[in-house]
Design a protein that fits this description.
The chain is mostly helical and 407 residues long. The chain folds into 2 domains: 1-197, no CATH class; 204-407, no CATH class. It is 84% helix and 0% strand. The protein has helices at 2-31, 34-55, 58-68, 74-103, 108-117, 126-131, 135-160, 163-187, 199-204, 210-233, 238-268, 274-307, 316-342, 346-370, 373-406. Helix 2 (34-55) packs parallel to helix 5 (108-117) and helix 13 (316-342) runs parallel beside helix 15. The two termini are 35 Å apart.
């Protein structure tokens, strides 16, 4: 019952976030128009790429690190990571703003504000709350302020009819979420937590996160590269792909409560239950991937029409590629972020995502040059399948080696 309650709590955070996100699309397209919505949506997608630099692997391996660490040491672990990520934020925010200005030179103020607003959450502690298996904290101190900022921002947008004020409101509440997160984590410490602002030590800590950040960065590359390629070579179809990308991301978001639960569930069972929990996790991954992928394939075009007020519609061939993409990502996230990380196989994550990037990046660019957005989506889907297959093979090798050591 305790496990189900925890899973339900993680699902609450995601469920409310999904509802707010879905509500925001028709409001923004209806008030500001599909073009400005596309600019904002693109800024959110590019922020995920630059957010990899800010999070620097803590979002990938952090939950397992926290779950495995002594409870008394966890707040200091978070504070150390915050200092390191703070320095990275000072590098990433101006860099993202410059890129967005090049991509959208007619909306300078909007994209600069968006660059800051959508990078701030990568300084937060959602990975920390996941690792300590406290979903209520995740909802109250991290998710709720950000969701409130979006809802109030939509009201401000309706009053001002200026999307810049929406993004400015989101920035304010994202900062509030970060402040609350830091306060509750530090105050919960039973020992004295001391910030160390030494830039040398802050950057030295990054070496321990190399597997996590390389995994996140290369994975983000071939997931977000299509937006850049389409913006350059197929600009007329950017809005359609952005809608497909948004539906895909909501699907991944819906999967995240299960992933968050598994990330804490595998290590907390101890070594005696490790193999059993790894097997169970690996078994359910393709099942949930298939269910979600079929949902996107069947309902994607209808969802697009409803969310965009009929302004953005994408064909069934595109939703099929996006559905397959979701299936592969669902499998690879559970096998990689939950299973392989739990048994110290972070190097496999790097190898698999590098494989995906090496195969996927050229295919995406060629598809954008010689086909259309459907071809681009299929290129992404194939690269994700390669990643999932590589991780599945590595996990089978781990099971075989573990079994041999027992006999």
């Amino acid at each position: 019952m305790a496990s189900l309650a925890r899973l339900a709590s993680f699902a609450l955070t995601v469920g409310v976030g999904t509802i707010v996100g879905l509500i925001s699309i028709p409001v923004i397209t209806g008030v500001a128009g599909a073009q400005l919505w596309a600019v904002q949506a693109m800024a959110q997608s590019v922020a995920i790429m630059f957010g990899i630099l800010v999070a620097f692997g803590w979002g990938t391996t952090g939950p397992s690190m926290v779950a495995s660490a002594d409870e008394a040491l966890r707040p200091q672990l978070f504070l150390d990571s915050l200092v390191s990520r703070g320095y990275l934020f000072l590098i990433a925010a101006p860099a993202m703003a410059a890129v967005m200005i090049v991509l959208q030179p007619q909306h300078v103020l909007l994209v600069v504000l968006a660059s800051i607003a959508y990078l701030v959450p990568f300084l937060g502690g959602n990975w920390y709350f996941i690792g300590e298996a406290k979903p209520k904290r995740l909802f109250i101190f991290d998710a709720l302020p950000q969701l409130t900022g979006t809802l109030i921002g939509l009201a401000v947008l309706a009053l001002t009819r200026d999307i810049v004020w929406l993004v400015a409101t989101q920035l304010l509440f994202n900062m509030l979420a970060l402040t609350l997160t830091c306060r509750v984590i530090i105050q919960s410490s039973e020992t004295h937590v001391v910030p160390n602002f030494s830039s040398r030590q802050a950057f030295a800590r990054l070496a321990h996160q190399r597997h996590g950040v390389v995994t996140a960065a290369t994975g983000s590359l071939y997931v977000n590269l299509p937006l850049v390629a389409i913006n350059l070579f197929l600009p007329a179809q950017l809005g359609i792909y952005l809608m497909a990308d948004r539906i895909f991301r909501y699907g991944v978001l819906a999967l995240s409560p299960l992933l968050q639960f598994i990330q804490g569930w595998i290590p907390e069972g101890g070594s005696e239950n490790l193999r059993h929990r790894l097997v169970r996790s690996a078994q359910i991954a393709p099942m949930f991937g298939f269910i979600g992928g079929m949902g996107i394939f069947l309902l994607g075009p209808v969802a697009s029409e409803i969310l965009s007020n009929g302004l953005v519609i994408f064909p069934g061939t595109l939703s099929g590629a996006v559905g397959l993409m979701f299936f592969a990502v669902a499998v690879s996230q559970i096998l990689g972020l939950a299973c392989l990380v739990s048994v110290g196989q972070g190097k496999i994550l790097v190898q698999s995502t590098v494989l995906g990037a090496v195969c996927g990046a050229p295919a995406i660019i060629l598809a954008a040059l010689f086909t259309d957005i459907t071809g681009v989506a299929w290129a992404v889907a194939v690269s994700e399948i390669l990643v999932a297959a590589y991780q599945g093979r590595a996990l089978r090798r781990y099971f075989a080696k573990d079994q041999a050591s027992r006999t």
